[in-house]
Design brief:
heterodimer; A: 478 residues; alpha+beta; Glutaredoxin; seven-stranded mixed β-sheet; B: 94 residues; alpha/beta; three-stranded parallel β-sheet; 4 strands; extended
């Protein structure tokens, strides 16, 4: 039986230096000893033949987490390991008594260099233990990586994070899904897209690895046929994908549902939506001026992603209203235009406020259009409080808004009130709802604590094609 | 500088990893040739000679210049060249 002892240590660890006499005792023992130093090959200085492991290959391959670590190897296979300094464990493992007399009986070790933040992925790449399928692009000596990304057309106009192997490996660690799993066919070119390709675009966008399950859910939601992503991309209208995240995941990754939640400043809000848009651009081939024919577009086409405020236990979150279990984490995708401000600082009764909201909601798309554009209504905490204090729950709010936005057809018909635009003639005595009852108006809660404002996010004219163009909701996986 | 820097392709990989050069034209007939003086010593003299030869052949020529070799062509000349000309000849060396 070929026996061997292995010690991995570093000078920067007080425990490793404290037990320096022990290394000499082990070296004098009957079992061959190999000592690897992570940071200084002159340490330990009291034995010969210290092996330089500053490149951390042995530490990485031995999966060292703490130094000092003592390993016993028998016929090439590890048969025991002691982590930190514990005299009894070391003596038992080494088969040698009297180790470190005069030293404390035990002392915890320090974190190994190979498990410092970001190091594991770097070592995986360095020692060839990863396989990335996407083709490798070598830059020239004088190429700036950021500029190279622009030149290759990979960006949305803002700088992107160059997708290096280390960053991709780190991003893939954010999901349990296999890198080669196919997520779906990305429009407009209907290109097969792997989890790895999603991760590469998430790197570009600036995502953290823990956002990956959300990004994957967004991609899968957008590929649900009813979301009509291809059409949304091609439209001359303003709209782009708008993402509302519900559930514990939104809080775990630090998404913003409060102050300035539709604005700048939160990494998850900013990069999750961006990752999806970059995927559409880079994998799907959907670029402005190409198949994206938007007359104006809107700033949200960089990223339009936020979380719902679920802090009030009495409120039914959007995800639950759309059929998911309480506590489930979901993404809801909507065809959003931009933010239309709603201000009402005078209506303090719920029915008053509902009528007031209806006035602005009726303006979505065009005041005289109905069942044409969908919308999101984001109730601010102060406006929501007016409803909640009156005992109005989600169902009541939705019902009252539906009633308040239902109008006589005669006022909406083309030509009425001297305006050519409007609903088609016929049924002049009918009452016409502004929004389809089932999914035409999504109500959610968000925003900062102060301000008698709410936000209306108008939607694509796809509302007129009720059965084939709908908001979609998808549960977030792992 | 980026020696050894490598990235992975985020696209569908339908195009070439390396950008292809445009094929040089078979003839300069009807083409507009840009002569770019990048600011090197006596580059102008060299381009004067080239212009003389090309003009004698009836080829249209436009002259461009950067103030010094250390400045970027993109700031001074290349956008105009891209719009106005078909071919560019640079006087690169001293």
């Amino acid at each position: 039986m070929a026996e061997q002892l292995i010690v991995v240590a570093k000078r920067d660890c007080p425990t490793c230096t404290m037990i320096e006499p022990v290394y000499a005792q082990l070296a004098a023992g009957a079992t061959p000893l190999a000592v690897y130093s992570q940071d200084d090959p002159t340490f330990p200085g009291n034995i010969d033949g210290v092996i330089d492991d500053r490149d951390l290959e042995t530490s990485y391959r031995r999966d060292i987490e703490i130094v000092p670590t003592l390993i016993r190897v028998s016929d090439g296979a590890e048969v025991g390991r002691a982590v930190g300094w514990h005299r009894d464990e070391w003596q038992k493992l080494a088969g040698q008594d009297g180790l470190g007399e005069g030293l404390p009986a035990s002392q915890p070790g320090c974190g190994a260099r190979n498990v410092e933040p970001g190091m594991r992925e770097r070592l995986m790449v360095r020692f060839g233990d990863v396989h990335i399928a996407a083709r490798r692009i070598e830059l020239g000596e004088y190429d700036d990586p950021l500029e190279s990304c622009f030149e290759r057309g990979w960006t949305d106009g803002l700088p992107v994070v160059p997708p290096t192997d280390e960053r991709i490996v780190r991003m893939l660690a954010g999901t349990t899904r296999a890198p080669d799993e196919i997520v779906g066919l990305i429009p407009p070119n209907r290109v097969s897209c792997s989890v790895e390709k999603v991760a590469i675009n998430a790197v570009l966008a600036g995502c953290r690895p823990e956002y990956m399950p959300v990004v994957l859910a967004v991609v899968e939601a957008a590929l649900i046929p009813e979301f009509a992503m291809h059409g949304l991309l091609c439209t001359t209208y303003f709209s782009g994908p708008t993402i509302i995240v519900n559930g514990p995941v939104s809080r775990a990754i630090g998404m913003n549902s409060g102050l300035n939640c539709l604005g700048q400043g939160n990494r998850a809000n900013a990069t999750i939506g961006r990752a999806f848009q970059l995927l559409i651009r880079n994998v799907g081939g959907g670029v402005p001026g190409g198949i994206d024919r938007a007359t104006f577009g809107n700033p949200g086409k960089y990223s339009f992603c936020f979380a719902e405020d679920e802090s009030d236990a009495e409120w039914t979150p959007l995800s639950v209203a759309r059929g998911f279990e309480p506590g489930a984490s979901t993404v809801t995708l909507f065809h959003g235009d931009g933010v239309q401000a709603f201000t009402d600082q005078k209506s303090r009764a719920p029915d008053e406020l509902a009528r007031s909201l209806a006035m602005s909601l009726n303006a979505v798309g065009h005041y005289k259009m109905a069942q044409y554009s969908n919308a999101i209504l984001l109730l601010s905490p102060e406006h929501y409080a007016i409803f909640r204090d009156a005992g109005w729950d989600r169902a009541r709010i939705e019902e009252e808004l539906h009633a308040a936005t239902t109008r006589p057809a005669k006022d909406l018909v083309r030509g009425a009130h001297g305006v050519g635009e409007g609903i088609a003639p016929g049924g002049a005595d009918a009452m016409v709802p502004k929004f389809w009852r089932d999914h035409g108006l999504l109500v959610a809660r968000a925003g900062g604590p102060a301000g008698l404002f709410s936000a209306i996010i108008g939607g694509w004219m796809g509302g007129r094609a009720r059965d084939v163009v709908q908001p979609v909701t998808k549960e977030i996986g792992t | 500088m980026s020696e050894g820097f490598a990235m992975r392709d985020p696209t569908a990989e339908l195009g070439s990893a390396k950008r292809q050069r445009l094929a040089p034209p078979e003839s300069l007939d009807g083409r507009v040739v840009a002569l770019l003086d990048i600011g090197k010593e006596r580059g102008g003299e060299f381009l004067d000679s080239i212009e003389e030869v090309l003009s004698a052949r009836g080829v249209a020529v436009k002259r461009y210049a950067k103030p010094s070799p250390t400045t970027l062509a993109a700031d001074y000349a290349s956008p105009d060249i891209a719009v106005e000309c078909d071919v560019v000849i640079e006087a690169l060396a001293d």
